[in-house]
């Protein structure tokens, strides 16, 4: 077997990566109120508690509103950025793309604090709208990367053929390019949705008094009594994220297969 | 052709305008505001728009800032070292031993934990490492230890483990990409010229993988320095890092010029270190692929 030792190491590494996630369901179904071994018995009480929690429901509604809005906004902006960067040459391209990609490496605390200072000095009321503003910004680079892959694998002659057959620039985009990059768009939407749903720092600083799922979780972690319910919530969220990411990955690959390009792997 | 180029330029600029405008308004303008604030005076509940270097003088003279900045740098350096060293063999395995059809699957498996519930993952490390945590209660049940292990409790070690776990995929991807770019015939050439497997790795593979290693180090180091959640949850708020200090200055103490000066200083320090790191590894980065 090629790379036997390395394979074993990689599997152990994978186990390390998944260790916390694997513990979640164990404690979510454990009837003991303290998160420790030995386990007590099996219970679904924490899930029932989660279901009946009104403030959690409000946080969920807020989070979903924010995630849907910012994933759509980020993907729209990403389509522009990806199309511009893969198809056209223009002055200042490097620095411009650098600025758009900057949130990828800039610590979120800097993004959120600077945005907060500006919003407060402009007298803007903090709400879920201000969180959408921030989440769109941090999702935009990811959307741009995913969509650039999609646009990059486009064959330019297809577009030229459409022009030759009398389509205008806009109708060619709608009829030829858009269907081909559609899997990339879906993948970008799902990715941005997952990122926004899970994002804490920006929501923490910019949401004012409105709870989102992560800020609600953060506020509850201080109360030992609430922890089992948070474990149940975490289990649901992890399953949801994995499902969304799997669908995103499926569409990303289908998009690559559709345009006949080689799969280069990964989201980044 | 000249007019064609101009229309290309015009089209490109028109297309890039919306995302660029957004980034300028929501990112660049706020960053510049922070920069401007850092030179203003703090009045009671207001900011006095008068140029001063006083904030920076205070920041640089503040022993608490020195301690917290050094701690943040230390934690980030340890996390970077741990993630890159631990990730390299995995990236190597993915690039050299996994069949091409399975590579995407492996990468997907590695990135999944990164996207799921950051907050809960951090909290779970506290649960795993804590006084009555999974490791301690597990080892006690097995009868291996009498007293809980204390070196992993709510301290810098625990923060390093948690952050190394959180940023692991970030380190694997750039290294993997660099390894994928290596022309396999170079390795065969090395072997044909009589180098051992280990020497070929040391003299051919590793230098060619260095751009990926440098990228991985920076992409882990920079966000780790600014991490807010881990010190807040794992350190129990008692061992703050620079992000917690900025937040306290900006919101709890409501001293925005001072908080801004802190943020700008921290960003400058990180930028200088990153550039120095790139300069040190300059000779690897010029490698032709």
From TrEMBL, chain A:
The keyword rRNA-binding does not apply. This is ABC-type spermidine/putrescine transport system permease subunit II. The chain crosses the membrane at residues 12-39, 59-84, 96-122, 128-154, 175-207, 227-248. Belongs to the binding-protein-dependent transport system permease family. CysTW subfamily. GO terms for cellular component: plasma membrane. It is a multi-pass membrane protein. Keywords: Cell membrane, Membrane, Transmembrane, Transmembrane helix, Transport. It is found in: Cell membrane. It comes from Paracoccus versutus (Thiobacillus versutus). GO terms for biological process: transmembrane transport. It comes from the Bacteria.
TrEMBL record, chain B:
Keywords: Cell membrane, Membrane, Transmembrane, Transmembrane helix, Transport. Residues 69-279 form the ABC transmembrane type-1 domain. CDD domains: TM_PBP2 (cd06261). GO terms for cellular component: plasma membrane. It is a multi-pass membrane protein. SUPFAM superfamilies: MetI-like (SSF161098). One of its GO terms (biological process) is transmembrane transport. The chain crosses the membrane at residues 20-40, 73-94, 106-131, 151-179, 200-222, 260-280. The keyword Transit peptide does not apply. Gene3D superfamilies: MetI-like. Its main location: membrane. Pfam families: BPD_transp_1 (PF00528). It is found in: Cell membrane. Belongs to the binding-protein-dependent transport system permease family. CysTW subfamily. This is ABC-type spermidine/putrescine transport system permease subunit I. It comes from Paracoccus versutus (Thiobacillus versutus).
């Amino acid at each position: 077997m090629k790379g036997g030792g390395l394979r074993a190491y990689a599997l152990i590494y994978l186990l390390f990566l998944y260790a916390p996630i694997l513990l979640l369901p164990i404690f979510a179904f454990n009837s003991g109120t303290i998160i420790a071994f030995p386990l007590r018995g099996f219970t679904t009480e924490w899930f029932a508690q989660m279901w009946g929690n009104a403030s959690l429901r409000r946080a969920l509604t807020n989070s979903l509103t924010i995630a849907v809005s910012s994933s759509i906004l980020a993907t729209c902006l990403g389509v522009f950025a990806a199309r511009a960067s893969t198809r056209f040459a223009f002055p200042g391209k490097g620095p411009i793309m650098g600025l758009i990609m900057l949130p990828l490496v800039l610590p979120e605390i800097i993004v959120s604090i600077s945005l907060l200072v500006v919003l407060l000095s402009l007298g803007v009321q903090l709400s879920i709208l201000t969180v959408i503003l921030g989440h769109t910004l941090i999702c935009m680079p990811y959307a741009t990367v995913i969509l650039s892959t999609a646009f990059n694998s486009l064959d330019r002659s297809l577009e030229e053929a459409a022009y030759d057959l009398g389509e205008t620039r806009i109708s060619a985009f709608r009829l030829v390019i858009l269907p081909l990059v559609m899997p990339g768009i879906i993948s970008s939407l799902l990715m941005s949705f997952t990122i926004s749903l899970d994002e804490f720092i920006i929501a923490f600083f910019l949401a004012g008094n409105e709870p989102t799922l992560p800020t609600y979780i953060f506020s509850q972690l201080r109360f030992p009594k609430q922890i089992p319910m948070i474990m149940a919530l975490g289990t649901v969220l992890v399953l949801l994220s994995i499902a969304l990411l799997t669908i995103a990955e499926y569409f990303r690959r289908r998009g690559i297969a559709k345009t006949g390009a080689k799969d280069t792997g990964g989201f980044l | 052709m000249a007019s064609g180029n101009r229309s290309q330029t015009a089209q490109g600029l028109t297309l890039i305008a919306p995302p660029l405008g957004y980034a300028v308004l929501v990112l660049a303008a706020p960053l510049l505001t922070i920069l401007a604030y850092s030179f203003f005076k703090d009045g009671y509940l207001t900011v006095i728009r008068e140029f001063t270097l006083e904030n920076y003088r205070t920041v640089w003279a503040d022993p608490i800032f020195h301690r917290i900045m050094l701690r943040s740098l230390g934690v980030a350096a340890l996390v970077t070292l741990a993630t890159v060293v631990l990730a390299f063999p995995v990236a190597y395995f993915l690039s050299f031993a996994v069949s091409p059809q399975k590579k995407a699957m492996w990468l997907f498996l590695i990135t999944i934990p990164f996207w799921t519930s950051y907050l809960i993952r951090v909290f779970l490390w506290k649960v795993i490492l804590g006084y009555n945590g999974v490791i301690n209660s597990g080892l006690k049940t097995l009868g291996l230890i009498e007293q809980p292990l204390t070196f992993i409790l709510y301290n810098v070690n625990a923060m390093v483990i948690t952050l190394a776990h959180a940023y692991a995929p970030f380190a694997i991807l750039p290294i993997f990409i660099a390894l994928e770019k290596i022309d396999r015939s170079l390795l065969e050439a090395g072997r044909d010229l009589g180098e051992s497997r280990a020497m070929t790795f040391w003299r051919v593979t590793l230098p060619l993988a260095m751009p990926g290693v440098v990228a991985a180090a920076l992409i882990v180091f920079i966000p780790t320095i600014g991490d807010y959640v881990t010190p807040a949850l794992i350190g129990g708020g008692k061992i703050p890092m620079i992000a917690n200090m900025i937040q306290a200055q900006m919101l709890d103490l409501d001293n925005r010029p001072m908080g801004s000066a802190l943020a700008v200083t921290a960003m400058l320090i990180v930028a200088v270190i990153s550039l120095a790191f790139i300069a040190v590894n300059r000779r690897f980065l010029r490698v032709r692929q």
